[in-house]
Amino acid sequence: MNGFEFALASAGSSELIFACALIGALGIGAQWLAWRLQAPAIVLMALAGLAVGPLWAVIFGHPLLDPQRVFNGGGKELLRPIVSLAVAVILFEGGLVLKFESLREAGAAVRRMVFLGGPLAWLLGTFAARYAAGLDWGSAVVFAGVMVVTGPTVIMPLLRQSKLGGRAGAFLKWEGIVNDPIGALFAVAGFEIIRVAATGESILGKGTMIVFAAALGVALGIAFGLGMVRAFRQGWTPEYLKAPIIFASIILCYAMAEMIEKEIGLVAVTAYGMTLANSRLAGLNELRKFKEDIAVLLVSGVFVILTANLTPDVIGRALTWNTLLFLVVMLFVVRPLSVWISTFGTLKRNEALLLGWIAPRGVVAVAVSSLFATLLYDLGRQGDSKFYFSGAEQITPLAFAMVFTTVVLHGFTIGPLARRLGLARKERPGVLLVGVNPWSIDFARTLKDIGIEPILADNTWRRLRPAREAGLSTFFGEVLSEDAEVRLDHSAFDQVLGLSANEPYNALVSSHFAPELGRHKVFQLSAQETEEDDHRTLGLSTRGRTLIRRGRSYDSLIRDHYRGWEFSKTRLTDTYDIEHFKRDRPKADIVAELRPDGALNFLGPHREVKGGEGVVLISFGPRREAETPAVEAAEAAAEPASGV
């Protein structure tokens, strides 16, 4: 290599490194900004890619990030393999949350929507893409298959925002979970059919071979899953290698399936994930955590790459009346008809109206449709192809248009529409107590007695047993994980208490829920047993508000609980006010007060009890027999407060 060639190679490698760094920074930066603003991450990631791609090109004459040139220049063909592998991991993630028992939980309406409504939406969407958007038949079939999906990454924030519960909320949640891999499989099937027709091969013979190859792909994915389960259960792999082995095996499974038949790898990795999800494998939560981290990185990168790869010309051709007509038909014809027909007789009228409107598209829709757009484009230019897929270049812009439109429209309308139709949660939201111990269980019982529904969360099944036996609502799992986004009903609570023995973990819980609920709605126990030491712990910006008072730590509460202290409910009256209570119970800690309007206020530093007639105090102090008759009378008066 001469000096000039070396300089070119060095420049190319530097540009590639810069591009990778920029993609990572923009993707993760958009995710962080979405977390801070409580905005849809998918929209911010797409905007980041558009800013450094087509928008930068319009302003400065060339894009800051040009994935096509960086990854495919100089004889390299890296862009499609990178996107393909990323989509494979994303679909594995979708399979990993799809348990067979989930279909039983979802109910008849979701099952009918998946098995009847899905194919119906695919059929109607094909006609919409062909006649409204103007795509060719091949592109329309593949694109409509992907548009069936409604991912949980966009559904769950909408459910939390709208406080939508009941059957309608469960329908949207489980439809998103189940449909994630289903839409991708529709696209695979549609592409294989089109590929057979384009190459002029015998449809019957090739179709039989494709079905056989798909079955082999499923079998390969199941074999990988069963093999991994056996290896983990037999202790053949150390704990620290389990997550990396899973990641490497996803790529290997995908590559082996691709050698059997093109695009069967997506089917194989989905089957692999589903096998692990239904294996009841111990330690699967830890694997999910690693998978979530990898998936966030890949999703962020893919979105930036795909949007940056759009050109102003392609975007200009997509912003037409045909695109607007396609969006209108998909939103007001295809979705309502597919829901109403498939769920007829299983949903109430108001539920059917809401579910026929709400269907935001997310990560899988864009990633998979962009992958197949590239495959169709390449297929149309093969020498043995009978067809030219003129609509392939329009698929990615149409997918982004669908995502932007549905996320914005449905995000702004789901709350008002749910309230108008009487489907928004009418019950006052409860309290999430993270960390189960004897003190928190007794506290939860007291909250339930005054009409506040508590949810006790812990990642240890044994610690939750007394709470379950007491008839309290529980959540088993890690509340900080993506899995909790799906399984934990965020509309059921509007305040969070970190009550575990681990103060940094309580701070993490508070930081996790603060952007969603507001920092004034997240609390945790004091870190130390003295006020002086407590000031030297984590700063206020990194932890929740202190519950009870400074110096009232987990250790001191548990110690007093074992000494016989208990929770009490005391209703204040015009003859027995807060000053009477403090004189009668000087040792008791006032934990919270329930106002006459039903508002529950947790107390702590600079949040003193307000008191007033009709207020119910929740306190933690010595046993009742050590109290005065006046206190006993006030506590007896608080018993009817369960109807508050």
From TrEMBL:
Designated name of the protein: Sodium/hydrogen exchanger
GO molecular function terms noted in the UniProt entry: antiporter activity
GO cellular component: plasma membrane
Location in the cell: Cell membrane
Lineage of source species: Bacteria, Pseudomonadati, Pseudomonadota, Alphaproteobacteria, Hyphomonadales
Keyword set, alphabetical order: Antiport, Cell membrane, Ion transport, Membrane, Transmembrane, Transmembrane helix, Transport
Pfam families per record: Na_H_Exchanger
Naturally occurring in which organism (per UniProt): Hyphomonas jannaschiana VP2
GO BP terms, alphabetized: proton transmembrane transport
Chief site of localization: membrane
